[in-house]
Specification:
heterodimer; A: about 110 residues; mainly beta; 7-stranded mixed sheet; B: about 110 residues; 6-stranded mixed sheet; 3-stranded antiparallel sheet; 11 strands
Chain lengths: ~110, ~110
């Protein structure tokens, strides 16, 4: 079966702009979560969606938002980009029941200049 | 506070030598712990979960609640084990990650 697909793979944006990243989970998976990965902070949780509802949110400013559609695809949006938002953004797909494996996408590499 | 600690950023061992990657956690309740691995140019993937008690690619990990540890072990390292290893704690629909350990297997 197809894996987790993230688009685009690479993005270069200017400070102050906004960006939308997309994630298509594995078919049948209803949970999608997003993580930010940076060399300094490692992997940090952004938010998790299950059946279009946000069940948890990490400690990120309100500029970071997300949503999930009825087909389980998810998008995350970052507004008013800052240089510090440059990171690899990873999407993870799970069935939605507890303790199961998370499947990761390849990530979107965002560079803010 | 819930936390995962991997004390070693880098671990370098010779091929055939034993490997132990350390992971300690802080969590109130029964933890659900995982080891994920990222090989060069590949995506993060699950290596082990403590619930399954499996041995994958020769790796095992035992949950020690008394020491709040979930160390990853392999008796004989192979060159293809070179990768980045992350310990993660499942809590409230999120994975809490350790900083990761880069494992280098020398020939």
């Amino acid at each position: 079966k197809a894996g987790v697909t993230q688009t685009p793979r690479y993005l270069i944006k200017t400070r102050g702009q906004q960006v939308t990243l997309s994630c298509s989970p594995i078919s049948g998976h209803r949970s999608v979560s997003w993580y930010q990965q940076t060399p300094g902070q490692g992997l940090q949780f952004l938010f998790e969606y299950f059946s279009e509802t946000q069940r948890n949110k990490g400690n990120f400013p309100g500029r970071f938002s997300g949503r999930q559609f009825s087909n389980s695809r998810s998008e995350m949006n970052v507004s008013t980009l800052e240089l510090g938002d440059s990171a690899l953004y990873l999407c993870a797909s799970r069935t939605g029941t507890g303790g199961n494996e998370a499947f990761f996408g390849q990530g979107t590499r965002l560079t803010v200049v | 506070a819930q936390r995962v600690t991997q004390p070693e950023k880098l671990l370098s061992v010779f091929k055939g030598a034993p490997v132990e990657l350390k992971c300690n956690y802080s969590y109130s309740g029964s933890p659900e712990l995982f080891w994920y691995v990222q090989y060069s140019r590949q995506r993060l993937q699950l290596l082990l979960r403590h619930i399954s008690r499996e041995s994958i690619k020769g790796f095992t990990a035992d949950l020690n609640k008394g020491e709040t540890s979930f160390h990853l072990k392999k008796p004989f390292a192979q060159e293809e084990d070179s990768a980045m290893y992350y310990c993660a704690l499942d809590s409230n629909y999120q994975l809490i990650w350790g900083a990761g350990t880069k494992l280098i297997i020398k020939p």
